[in-house]
Amino acid sequence: MSAVPTISLKDFDARKEEITQQLMDASINVGFFTLYDHGIPSEDIQAAFDLSREFFALPDEVKAKTPLDGKNAGWERGTQVRPSTGTADQKESIQLQFARMEGLWPSDEDIAGFRTRAEKFMHQVQTLSIKVMECFAVGLGLPIDTFTEGTVDPGAGDSQSVLRLLHYHSTEGKSFGPNFWRAGAHADFDVLTMLFQRDGEGGLEVCPGRKVVGDFGMGQTWLPVEARQDRIVCNIGDQLMRWSDDRLKSTYHRVRLPEGTESRGPRYSIAFFNQARTNTTIQGPQKKYPEITGGQFIADALARNRMQSAEIARQAAQQPEDKIAREIHFVPQHLQISA
Ligand SMILES: O=C(O)CCC(=O)C(=O)O
Ligand SMILES: [Fe+2]
Q1: Which ligand is nearest to the CA of 162?
Q2: 150 C-alpha vs ligand 2 centroid, how far in Å?
Q3: Could you give the CA distance from residue 181 to residue 201 in angstroms, rounded to a whole number?
Q4: DSSP secondary structure code for residue 38 in this structure
Q5: What would the pLDDT profile of 305-329 be if each residue is shown by its tens digit?
Q6: Is ipTM > 0.90 here?
Q7: Assigned CATH topology for domain 6-327
Q8: Domain range annotation of the chain
Q9: N or C of the chain: less Cβ packing under 10 Å?
Q10: In a mutational test of the pocket of ligand 1, which residue from 167, 195, 270 has the highest number of ligand atoms less than 8 Å from its CB?
Q11: Which residues have CB less than 5 Å away from ligand 2 (the ion)?
């Protein structure tokens, strides 16, 4: 396996079967693929990045008016510790949802039309996601609307999908310890992620080979994903891996810091996470795993991350004083690479 497959959605209706086959092959073998000819106008993608830049350029005190609420909505900076690394991602982000956003939308005084502009893009990406999720349903032999009904809120206010604007700070003049990342290795929790990158702002790497959804399953071969604004990077998340009885793979991925002669400038990306609705029941056709609701799935995943992070902190606390604080270099046993 040498690269992340790239798939054209040109003439979608006429080519649906062929596209479904390509999406299935990519998701069974790699868990990642990129889309082109996807139909989202380039000026709308640019507008989403413009919105992101405007927001992150605000002073921290202003961004902190809509803080992360523990339920995947709001702004945070430098707080996301990945269980795989034990260090905080070198980034800031704001997560936006269709529901449960009371008090969490940046105000029009701070950014004119923020909510309208963000929601327009969220709907565009959700609409494209539906097309792709319908292909997966058909490819898996399930009713065509399985994941659409399962993720898209018909008006009940129970959507859990998230748009996340990400800003990885410039690393100009900074140096980092050996276990620092723009985003530490992780698998996504959701059904399907669509990620937008900007030309030349690279560093995303993926590690195919996970067999079972509960596994860490990280190998040692990491494939780079080219950063191009005209391609959408898509990946299967843990919910779809479980919903497909592990046929479609939720693959570990990470974003590394700039190296060698690479630009030290900032990196902006935008991710849309299609999540199962709160009351949707997730279970694959073979019933490999017990039923679980979308709400419980997210609650469990967040609790598991908190537990693993607490364990990392506990182990770090046993290290000499000068090793703690910012520079925690604990690597969990299961992720240590033996020489
Ligand atoms: O910024 C990226 O390229 C990847 C971000 C990511 O994997 C995530 O937020 O889950
Ligand atoms: Fe991710």
Answers
A1: 1
A2: 21
A3: 15
A4: -
A5: 777 666 666 666 665 544 433 333 3
A6: yes
A7: Jelly Rolls (2.60.120)
A8: 6-327
A9: C
A10: 195
A11: 188
